[in-house]
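User: Could you check the structure of this?
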Amino acid sequence: MAHYLLKLFISAGVIVAVTELAKRNNLAASIIHSLPLTSLLAFIWLYAETGDAKLIGNHAFGTVWFVLPTLPMFLVMPWLIQKGMGFWPSLLSCIVGTVGLYYVTMKLLAVAGVKL
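Assistant: Sure, the predicted C-alpha cells are below.
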C-alpha cells in the first residue's frame, strides 16, 4: 500500500509542480510539460514492479504511435481560444478531435500490419 501511495504522491506532485511553475514562468513550465513525464513515470513504475525491460520497450513502441494524434491539439487549442471559443469548448473540441485521430491511427496501424 505504501508503494502505491508513493507512486500517487510523486506522480501528482509532478503535475502540481508544473502547473504552479506555469503561473510564474510559462516558458520553463512549457519545456518541462513537453517532456514525456507521464510516459517516463509509467516506464519507471512498470519496470520497478515487473523488472521486464522488454515490456517497457513494447510499451514505448506503442506509445510513440499514439503521441502523433495528440500533437494537433497543441496547435488547435490555442487557435480556438484565440478565435474566442473559450477554454472549455476548445478543450472539449480538442478531446473529441484527438479521440477521432486515435481511431484513425488504430485503423491505419491495422492496415499497415503494426501489432501493438
